[in-house]
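Task: fold both queries, return tokens.
Query 1:
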Amino acid sequence: MCDPKETRGQGWRGWQALPQPAASIPDGPWLDLSHPLNAAMPRVPVFPAPVFRRLKCMPADPLNVTEFSMVVHIGTHIDAPCHFFMDGPALDAIPLPRLHGPGVVWKLDGLRPDSLIGVPQLEAARPLLRPGDILALDTGWSLLAGSDAYEDHPSLAPEAAEWLVAQGVKLLACDIPTPDMPVHRRPLGFDWPVHKRLLRNGVLICEHLRGHGALAGRRAEFMFNALNIEGSDGSPVRAVARAIRD
């Protein structure tokens, strides 16, 4: 939990102002963009595996009762600013408008293992971003979840993160374990430059997204239904989206 008296890890710059979203018309069904919560859900290897067990089980017991224990940064989840900034808000202090709204899904083709996503690739993607949009990146890597190849994912260049901040993106959702460099490539002293550039400016991050390829190249309405965990630096989410038109 985040201690507001802690003096290290300062530097959160606050929420960027958001314009009022334009009215839109739903143009398709809601799609589930989340990995199911189970023992095999994707996670960075440094985190322990989740544990699920039945405390009560029918027919031996009169009802079924399930217990689970997990790190909040595995499976489809969202990062709160205090994940890296002690003076940033925890999960329960994130305003609800930051967790839902319109945006775009960008398909990024031709990405190779361990490749870097730069500003030119983002500038060329369509449809164009609008200030206050949610951006979901479709790299295709969610299809590799559960395999060793999933860990060789592409990542954002730090300057690409700065570019997203400048465009007024309010949430970045990606189908990879992290928008930062893969764990196996990180040098000594690695400092999570992408996470820090985004979160310090109030741009939330969702990782391990899936299923959004059906919306690639379209505008969409998103909901990132995070648990209201008091003081937490993150939460699993049931992420959903549907196509929209203006």
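Query 1 returned. Query 2:
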Amino acid sequence: MEVSDEVAEVMVQSVREMYNYDRRTRYHKAFYFLDAFDWTEKYALEHSPSAEEIILLKEEQAAHEKLLAMLDEALSIITPMQARRVKGYYIRGLDFTQIAKEEGVDKSVVNRSVHRGLKCMREFYSCQQTE
């Protein structure tokens, strides 16, 4: 069948685009539609982090690991009762009422104890970071 040059050009271009699309799909192993799931397009379009972002992330992780390493020492400078209550609240995920029930004391006592312990720990951390 004979068609005009413009139509033939569009058909050739269409075939090229389909071929390129298939090649990209195979290369990226992307055998799904970008709108198949809510997360798919975002995941496909995410780029790997830059060198600067990687360095910043490593520095943040190192600082975080340093603080975690100092946690046992920081907990040792507060009273054992404060340490137990701080661990209960922040590590075990209990609220003040649950800790108070466990220990048979009032909720406000636990609240004050945790906050005093945190204040001492903050002072410890600020002294350690300035050194």
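Both queries returned. Flag for query 2: Residues 51-77 form the longest helix (27 residues).
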